[in-house]
């Protein structure tokens, strides 16, 4: 983003995948996203590592939670705006499990007057008078406020963490972000304990992420990945159980043939797209994301 034009954020060595969630020529100018969950599903399918969701409402639903659960199981970090109603009423998808809910602060680290708060908020980030792109065809920049402006800052921080340590799980990325936060409770009387872990701090988050343990990749290898209908598993330990699950949570049928003492051949039927391969090795379940191409 170092092109001297417009804006730059926290991410490093990251690619942005803009996903359109409304029809062409929509009269709402981006204020309504009738296909928001379809957009999340598309982001899962194409292998996004972080999904930023600056939208939502007060209504929860099983489909939305199932989609977030599937994304989390595939190693995707999910981040959403906490809402702009200055209430502690849960806002979705931010309040779903496995989603980092982001409230907004002003330049003085005080809760923005509009920002939601409460037990479902995980972290806070700057969200008042943020210079950013504007919707429309003019290629313009301007100042905007909202938890929708705070949310992408946390998404950029998640990208920064993963660029530094791509083996971290979503839970570890969330832990690093929270551990790195600066407490702002003392600056916000009346909101103590309702502003999540505090305002994000990128420097401290990278320090925290460096101390987190990573999965032992040497104990579990899947290749080729991407694969066709057939792929191989190499493991130092004998797997007690193997599961292959699609992104919508359905078990995928397969045959497994042991090639030698540490290698197994997997043949799938009618499976395509991203899925999660889980193996029980001893007392622990370990997982990897796999792309099956037809």
User: Could you tell me the number of beta strands?
Assistant: 13
What is the arithmetic mean of pLDDT?
88
Helix and strand string, N-terminal first?
A: HEHEEEEEHHHEEEEEEE
Report the uncertain regions: none
Strand order, main sheet: write it out. Answer: 1-2-3-4
Can you give the helix content as a percent range?
A: 10-25%
Beta strand %: 15-25%
Rg result = 21 Å
Largest sheet: 4 strands, parallel
Helical stretch tally: 5
Q: What would you call the shape?
A: globular
User: What is the straight-line distance between the termini?
Assistant: 35 Å
The assembly state of the depicted protein chains is single chain
- Structural class, from helix and strand content? alpha/beta
Feature tags:
294 residues, alpha/beta, 4-stranded antiparallel sheet, 20% helix, globular
Structural write-up:
There is one protein chain. The chain is an alpha/beta fold. It is 20% helix and 25% strand. It has five helices and 13 strands. It has a four-stranded parallel beta sheet with strand order 1-2-3-4, sandwiched between helices. Strands 7-8-11-10 form a four-stranded antiparallel beta sheet, with no helix packed on it. A hairpin with a 6-residue loop joins strand 7 and strand 8 (230-235). It is globular. The protein starts with 35 loop residues before the first helix and ends with a strand. The model has no long low-confidence stretch (mean pLDDT 88).
